[in-house]
Amino acid sequence: MERIYVIGAGSWGTAFSYHLARKGLHVNLWVREEDVYRQIKEERENRLFLPGIKLPENIRPFQDFSELSPEGIYFLAVPSRFVREVLRQFPIRPLYLVSLTKGIEEPTLATMSQVVREELGKLDYAVLSGPSFAREVAQGSPTVVVVASWSQDFALRVQSLVSDEYLRAYTSGDVLGVELCAAVKNVLAIAAGAVSGLGLGHNTLAALIVRGIAEMRRFVVAMGGSPETVSGIAGVGDLVLTATGALSRNRRVGYELGKGKSLEEILRGMRMVAEGITTSRAVLSLAERVGVEMPITEKVVEVLWEGKKPSLALRELMLRRLKSEY
User: Fold this and answer.
1) Which residues of the chain have pLDDT under 70?
2) What span, in angstroms and rounded, lies between the C-alpha atoms of 183 and 33?
3) CATH number, domain containing residue 33
């Protein structure tokens, strides 16, 4: 039986641990917050990040990194801005690591695979992504994800480990493309939320999503990813979920911005991380580096970080120079 470590007990890390434990696997779940650690250990529930889900006894919470073993498979589920800090605390170098994190590091503009390689050296690495709200995974809603790795053997190993009647994993060799799609879709979801917050209809939301897909494709291909990845689970699949689903934190941020709240007000009311906020600037910087135009992302950055009103940002998008679709 695999020795499994899930690093991070936010909503996704907890739900993914629950999924693996439901399969009968023993999961060691690293918890940063002392109050969450006590809740899971004593009450078998993460009331802060995943309330209402009773966690089985084969999820063992821990806080001390001295308990880590290099032979286990590690699932990394911490926000992108904390990944490097957490990896630097590891007393060992894992042999196998799967990233569940959807973001790009600021200010380095590094993807999670780059951060992992820089901090841990060469190892078997995969990224798992796709349309997968944490609560719905924990509740057993049928879900599909993609596992991308440079090693086909490792991708197949992870695929077999995580798949069952509730969650079906597909494999891919496009690590970069999957990581970039996972980052960009969160930025576009903020824009989609703003559309709803402004009280606009389905026409506007559909326009935002379809032009967002075009923006994502240009960016991913220019960076070296595959256009097929954009059309698949990690791209269009995850974007549709995050841009339309009520459980999306990034969509919620955009919705509140559309309602007229400031970013500071919104963040004061959130304990969980919305990756698209910081990732927006990183994506735009990378796009500028490779010479790709990303007008929606640019407007998201202006609304989040420069105080532009969402209504004005949308008007500017609609009045851009007319052009052919392709």
Assistant:
1) 1
2) 25
3) 3.40.50.720
3-class SS at 250?
helix
The structure tokens 């806080």 sit at: 63
Residue where the block lists tokens 């120079």: 321
Whole-model pTM: value is 0.96
Alpha-helix residue ranges (DSSP H) falling in the chain: 11-22, 34-38, 80-87, 112-120, 134-138, 152-162, 175-197, 202-223, 227-231, 238-244, 249-258, 263-268, 276-290, 295-306, 310-318
What is the identity of the amino acid at 84?
A: R
The Cα–Cα gap between 313 and 287 comes to: 19
Would you name the residues annotated as active-site residues?
Answer: 185
pLDDT for 132 equals 98
The single-letter DSSP state of residue 5 is E
pLDDT at residue number 26: 97
Q: Is residue 323 part of a domain?
A: no
Q: What is the pLDDT of residue 1?
A: 56
- Tell me the residue range of the domain where 104 lies: 4-173
Given this model, what pLDDT does residue 269 score? 86
Two structure tokens written together for 39: 């809740």
d(CA 162, CA 165): 10
Do 163 and 231 belong together in one domain?
A: no
**246 secondary structure, DSSP code:** T
Taking only the tens place, the pLDDT of each residue in 167-176 is: 999 999 999 9
Cα–Cα distance between 97 and 20 in angstroms, integer? 15
* Per-residue model confidence (pLDDT) at position 142: 98
